[in-house]
Amino acid sequence: MRDFWLGGELGSQGHLLWTAPDWLVLLAVAGAVLGVVLVAVGRRAPLARAVEIAAATAGLGGLVVMLAGPTWVEEEGRTEPGRTVVLVDGSRSMAVREGGHARSDAVAKVLDHVRSEVGDVEVFHFGDDLAVGEPDGFDLPGTDVEGAMQSLGERVAGEKLAGVVLLTDGLDRGLLRKRYQQEEATAQGPELAGPLTVFQIGEAVDVQDLAVRSVDTGGYAFIRAPFAITAEIDGVGYANRSVPVTLLRDGATVTEQRVVLDAEGKASARFEVTPEDAGRFAYAVSVPVYEGDAVPANNTMPVVVKVVRDRIRVLQVAGAPSWDVKFLRRFLKDDPSVQLVSFFILRTQRDLASQYSDRELSLIQFPYERLFAEDLWTFDVVIFQNFDYAPYFQFNSNQLLSNLAKYVEEGGSLVMMGGDRSFGLGQYGGTPLADVLPVEIGRQEETPDTAPFLPQLTEDGARHPITRVVADAAENAAWWARLHDLDGTNVVLKARPDAAVLLAHPTRKDSTGAPLPVLSVRRSARGAPWR
Q1: How many Cβ atoms sit within 10 Å of the Cβ of residue 273?
Q2: How far apart are CA 242 and CA 219, in angstroms?
Q3: Cα end-to-end distance, the chain, whole Å
Q4: Which of 162, 196, 274, 480 could form a disulfide with 457 if both were Cys (CB 3.0 to 4.6 A apart)?
Q5: How many CB atoms lie within 10 A of CB 248?
Q6: Can you tell me the distance from the alpha carbon of 234 to that of 244, in angstroms, rounded to the nearest whole number?
Q7: Of 191, 102, 185, 119, nearest to 153 (Cα)?
Q8: pLDDT, tens only, 98-112
């Protein structure tokens, strides 16, 4: 009967629970009593009164029971099987060959054994990091057992596992091994997510391994200019032996030489190569795979060499040393494709007129006549960085500047950078060089604008490769918006009609009312690249 009234079959181990708060039950009982009293009031036949009171009592009593929220609670549990995780070492040392077979060959057998004992398991592989699944190949550079255990603990979020199975050859390269080596008495292992079982892969025996450890090419090479390819050879178990080292290009042998490994099994091989064509070429240094070589995969190391036609010759002339001059010089000098010639003016005309004689100074005079009369056409780019020509072009200044203008018109590149010795302040207005610049300069020395400002990227600047520092237009604009304020700018008359203004002043105007140019480029008369 209890099962019927409570809505179904009830377990024998359950109990009734009233879920409503006590104050609500008391309020409902008080209301029910009041209701029964009100029903009893009045003149009626005794039988009718009795029936009404009984009905009111049953109805209001049922309402009280419903509001009290009776719930039948049965506690029942079940046992979930624990999770078992297998960690597989995917490092290069697992590919070491022993007895004609790689150590990693044993991994599949161990996994089959574990699955037959515990059923389904979750498999991860690790080197320096932990990743899901079995390794595609045993070629990871590191072995960090402690890191793998910590990453596993983070993945299971504190859950206690039924078991952790570790498959490794034991060649740990992480902090765990170093800590045990340095602090054997106090070292502690990583916190485990469950009971640990370790399967040792491989044997603790000496191995033989001849390998190409590194190849250095310098990054660039030039047509018909020799460059060196240097390879470092390691031979574990091959001390004091002579071995051949082969240089290949696109799979074909270029040359071969023999090296003798020292007592530690190390040697260097140096090849000198003279390329005849420009482009990218795949070279490789290889040593033979002898019988018993533990890791045949490391006996060849490829490298790509970029061969260019020639270096870009750059002439940098700076009117005075400064931080921006130093930066540009280092930037160009660090580029192996650039051959840089720099001149910094350290001796002014006032110095030359002083009491010091040339024998008392270690600095050389500026060879301006030779540079701009004889050597100019050997350069691809000329940079005038805050340089005023007048104090130094003492003779034939008009001819030398005409040479530079002709150099630009015939395809050379000129960069003029501002400062207190440049543009109008450098007295370039009205000179032959002024005709090839992307801006017009007045004949009078202009007054520079020394107020700090943030240059604005123009529509041309958003597309031009000089100011397109990243491919995405919005991100490029954001980069320029984060630029620090500039300390000021040279004031020019205006940009030439055939020039492109890449950066402009946010408030200052030129003679036409357009924003003052800050960075401009212009093509030469013969259509060479932007100047």
Answers
A1: 18
A2: 29
A3: 101
A4: 480
A5: 17
A6: 13
A7: 191
A8: 777 788 888 889 999
